[in-house]
Design goal:
This protein has 206 residues and is mainly β. It has two domains: 38 residues, no CATH class; 162 residues, Sandwich (Jelly Rolls). Helices cover 13% and strands 38% of the residues. The protein contains two helices and 13 strands. The strands form two sheets. Strands 1, 3, 4, 6, 9, 10, 11 and 13 form an eight-stranded antiparallel beta sheet that branches. Strands 2-5-12-7-8 form a five-stranded antiparallel beta sheet, with no helix packed on it. The protein is globular and about 35 Å long. The termini are far apart.
């Protein structure tokens, strides 16, 4: 067989195996994609609606498991604080609130024993907030929501991404915030209970 024919046969075999010109020998595009996804990380459930083992309660809220969700409804202020601090991450939470509820997810909290909007970023869930500028979907005192979305009386999916100084928030797949801020780089996550009824069915992170 001529050299040209041999070269064509080898190239064809490489395509059959999924190799592409310029790719590191032994790696296929599928494997490369797999490595990229692996590097990104799989979702990890840190609240499953049954257990609070990965969280520390602070304050007076009556957190407890009810019908597959972790719930507080005594109108007392309190938080569930993650036992692990996080820097860069993607977070996805399923949350239900009554229309009058004052809740939210605080991220990169610098003090796990005292969580505030001054030592953390507060992603708000508060439809009836007196100052509507930082209502549901906002990051309090950092970024106003792109649109008015109410969370009351339904299950919602809240997605928060923190990558370096860039913070994004999506509520029910709608973009709410995309902002750059450098005040807080790393810290705990805290789930807030205040007025009304608050339920967290699932919280995942990667």
């Amino acid at each position: 067989m001529k050299r040209t024919a041999i070269a064509i046969a080898v190239f064809a075999a490489g395509l059959t195996l999924g190799l592409t010109p310029g790719l590191t020998p032994g790696l296929t595009p599928g494997l490369t994609l797999g490595l990229t996804l692996s590097a990104q990380g799989a979702w990890k459930t840190i609240l499953d609606g049954k257990s609070m083992d990965q969280w520390t309660p602070i304050g007076m809220a009556n957190w407890r498991a009810v019908d597959g969700a972790i719930q507080a409804d005594n109108g007392m202020a309190g938080f569930l604080v993650s036992k692990v601090p996080y820097g860069d991450f993607e977070l996805r939470a399923e949350v239900w609130v009554s229309p009058d509820a004052n809740s939210g997810i605080f991220i990169r909290g610098e003090d796990p024993k005292q969580v505030t909007a001054m030592n953390a970023y507060e992603v708000n869930i508060f439809d009836m907030r007196p100052d509507q500028a930082y209502r549901t979907g906002a990051i309090v005192d950092v970024a106003k929501p792109a649109s008015i979305e109410n969370a009351g009386n339904k299950w919602n999916t809240l997605e928060i991404t923190a990558k370096g100084p860039r913070l994004t928030v999506r509520l029910n797949d709608k973009p709410m915030v995309d902002v750059q801020d450098m005040k807080h780089a790393r810290g705990v996550i805290a789930l807030q209970a205040g007025a009304g009824t608050v339920k967290f069915r699932k919280v995942e992170i990667r």
